[in-house]
Automatic annotation (TrEMBL):
GO process annotations (BP): DNA integration; DNA recombination
Keyword annotations of the record: DNA integration, DNA recombination, DNA-binding
InterPro entries membership: CB (IPR044068), DNA_brk_join_enz (IPR011010), Integrase-like_cat_sf (IPR013762), Integrase_catalytic (IPR002104), Integrase_recombinase_N (IPR010998), Integrase_SAM-like_N (IPR004107), Tyrosine_recombinase_XerCD (IPR050090)
Residue span, Core-binding (CB) domain: 4-88
Protein's UniProt name: Tyrosine recombinase XerD
Keyword DNA-binding recorded: yes
Length: 307
């Protein structure tokens, strides 16, 4: 392989990662993996754009023989998936050889007890909204239980992402998720309308020592007193403290999202759920099927124990 090809490919891959909003640390770590992969390609005398699924399995075996753990190999394959997505965008490849690769022996994501749709609905309906802060929290909760948004996605939302006339929410994409347009539930719209046109304005008017910062951050949908944008985790803490009082079985926002996606899987096909969840890869959506099956098995054992 021509040494100049390495630098050209590296530079174009960096441009791709920046376009997908990868952090500097993430880019740095993925470039280390890129260098390891390129070393193997040179050893095998393979052209990077033409690597096949079977050849990629050979790379995984080479990594394992050199002491890499299954978790490490999983990270390597994740970066290689992005590399070939970049090639496909550039027209340098037609298939991603890493798409169907699954690493065995890696600990699965935490499985959550599924909160039923009627329980999620009850959380929203019973959430108090007697103060400005509670009104804000109720809107946040609604986007958790009906749109299944991630915490960081909620924190990224801006006022212009809400289309009350059409009852839609625009969720921007990031390095971790795809953009999508989501339907708001009818019973959400009035609360959001009240928050955007009244509550949010009253929060901005509240005096705080950080009011100067407000001028720069008032485009954010969820703001604190004086228009300041605190760490969104502070808002989520307020939401979850009240939620756990309403339903002690709720552990965190991830559990709520898992429950929402599991509900979608019973209503729509995998591709539709992938879009709604903002997943970059269908495998991410499929992992929630496993959570649902585990939950079903637990129920069978609880009510119909064998032996």
């Amino acid at each position: 392989m021509n040494p100049s090809d390495y630098q050209k490919t590296k530079d174009s891959f960096i441009t791709y990662m920046k376009s997908r909003a990868f952090t500097q640390n993430s880019i740095r770590s993925r470039l280390i993996i890129f260098r390891i992969y390129w070393k193997w390609l040179a050893k095998e005398n393979l052209e990077v754009e033409q690597v096949t699924y079977n050849e990629l399995l050979g790379f995984m075996k080479w990594c394992s023989n050199n002491g890499a753990s299954q978790r490490t190999i999983q990270n390597y394959i994740g970066t290689i998936k992005h590399l070939y997505e970049h090639f496909i965008r550039e027209g340098k490849a037609t298939k991603n050889p890493a798409t169907d690769i699954t690493i065995k022996g890696v600990k699965r994501k935490v499985l959550y007890h599924i909160i039923e749709p009627h329980e999620l609905h009850a959380l929203y309906n019973n959430y108090p909204a007697t103060s400005l802060q509670q009104s804000r929290s109720r809107v946040i909760l609604g986007m958790l239980v009906y749109q299944g948004l991630k915490t960081f996605e909620l924190g990224m939302l801006e006022v212009n992402d809400i289309n009350l006339r059409e009852g839609k929410l625009n969720v921007k994409g990031s390095a971790r998720s795809n953009s999508r347009e989501m339907k708001l539930e009818a019973h959400q719209i009035m609360d959001i309308y009240d928050y955007v046109l009244k509550v949010r304005g009253e929060l901005i008017q509240m005096d705080t020592k950080r009011k100067a910062q407000a001028k720069e951050e008032t485009s954010k949908l969820f703001i604190g007193e004086g228009g300041t944008c605190y760490s969104f985790s502070n808002f989520m803490t307020q939401v979850m403290v009240t939620v756990r009082k309403l339903n002690p079985n709720v552990l965190n926002a991830k559990q709520i999202r898992t429950s929402v996606i599991t509900k979608w899987l019973k209503m729509y096909n995998l591709r539709e759920v992938q879009y709604l969840a903002g997943h970059r890869y269908i495998s991410s959506t499929e992992s929630y099927l496993h959570n649902d099956m585990e939950g079903l098995q637990e129920e069978v054992q609880q009510f119909h124990p064998v032996g």
